[in-house]
Amino acid sequence: MLLEIVITTGLALACLQVQATPQDLEQQVEFDIPRQTADRSLIEFAAQAGVTLVFPFDEAAEVTTNRLKGRYTLTEGLTRLLEGTSLASSIDDGELSVVSTNKERGQGKMKTSFFGRLLSALAVGSATTGVAVAQDNGGTLEEVIVTAQKREQSVMEVPFSMQALTGDALSRANIRDLQQVMELVPGAIQTNENSLGRRQYSIRGVDQGFSDPTVSYYVDDAAYFPGEDFAPIARIFDISRVEVLRGPQSTLWGASSMGGTVRFITEKPNLEKFEAHVRAGYYDTKGGDDSYYTDAAVSVPLVEDKLALRVVGSFEDVGGWTEDALGNENVESGDITSYRASLLWAASDDLDVQFTAIHNEIEQEYGNIVYDRDPVVNFYGQNDVNENEYDFFYLTFNYDLGWAALTNTTTYIDATP
Prior knowledge:
Blueprint: E1 2-10, H1 22-26, E2 28-33, H2 38-49, H3 57-60, E3 68-73, H4 74-82, E4 87-92, E5 95-100, H5 114-126, E6 135-136, E7 139-140, E8 145-146, E9 153-154, E10 162-166, H6 167-172, H7 178-182, E11 188-195, E12 198-203, E13 215-219, E14 222-223, E15 239-246, H8 250-253, E16 260-266, E17 275-285, E18 290-303, E19 307-318, E20 334-346, E21 351-365, E22 370-373, E23 376-378, E24 385-400, E25 405-416
Parallel strand pairs: 13-16
Antiparallel strand pairs: 1-17, 2-3, 4-5, 6-7, 8-9, 10-15, 11-12, 13-14, 15-16, 17-18, 18-19, 19-20, 20-21, 21-24, 22-23, 24-25
Helix pairs in contact: 2-4
C-alpha cells in the first residue's frame, strides 16, 4: 500500500492555456493554410498565429476546412477557415477555442479527464496523423514540439515511434522518476535493479543482459552515461519534456541506442524574469519506513536578455522495507541527492551558449535483492554499502546560420561507482 501526499507551490507556474486580449484577437496575421482536414488546419492556424487553440479533435479529424491565405485577424481568419463546416469559433473569457455545432455530438467542447489527456499524449507520440487537443475545466493538451531528429518539429511529423511527455503533464501526474516514465511507454520494461538507483531498462525486447546498454540517455543534446551500464538517476523536476524514442536509433543517437533513446529536455534559464517553484511529498510503504522528498528550482536573470542562471535541487529519503538475517528491520533505507545548475549566455541574436553542471549522489546500506518473502530478508549484509556519486558537465553552442542551425556539445563525466 502506497500513500503519497504531495505539496506544490510556485512563484511562476506554467499554464496549459493562453488567454488572448482583445488586442491579440484583432491583430492581423499572415496565414497560408491549404485545404485539408480540420485537425491539421487548426494546428497550423495555432502555430502561424502563435496562440493556443482548443478544439474537439475527434470531429476535427472528420471535417475538411477551407483554404486560408492572406492577412486576417484571429477571429476573422478562424471564421473563414471553418466556414461551411460543423465547427465554429468561440471566445470565452478571452480564450479562443473551436466548438462543434453538431447537436448529435453534444454541441460544445470535448471534455476528458486528466489521465485521459495523459494517455492521449502518449497516443499522439506514437502516431503521425494528428495531435489531440482537449479541454477539461481549463486544462488543454497542446501540440507537442520535439527535437527527436535534432531539429524542432511537431511530434506528428516524426517518422518513427516515440512518446513525448511535457513537464507540466508529468508534474500534474506526480511523475518524478525515470521508472514511472518507462511504465507509460509500451514495450519498455525494467530488467534489473540490484540496489537504489542502479537500474537497467529495455525497449522493444532488446535486453542488454551483461553487455553494453541497449538504451541511451541524453540530457538535452549531451550523452548521459554514468558508468557501470546502469541508467542515470534522473529526477523528473523542472523538465520541459521527456522524449522516449523507440529503437533502433543508432544513426542519430549512437551505438547504445539499439533498443531506443530517452531524452530529458531541461528548462532553460529565463533571460527576462525571476522564476522559482518548490515541490515536496511524503509516502508510506506498508511494512516499511516513511519516505519523503523535496524539489526546488530557481531561475535568475543576471543581465537582462543576455545572461541567466538556473539552479535545481532535489533530495529524497527512501525508506526501507526489508530486514536482514539478524532481524533488523527496514535496513535498505537510502538517500538520493541531485543538483543541476545551468548558465545561459545569449551572445547575440544568432549565438547562445549554455553551460550545465549536474551532481548526483546515492547512499544506501544493503541492497534491493531479497531471498525470502515471509519475512522479506535482504540478500546483502550491513557492510555492503551502495555509494554512487557522479558529476556531469556539458557545454553547448547553438548558432543560427539562417538556412540551418549549428549545434556543438562537449561533455565530461566523472563517476565514482
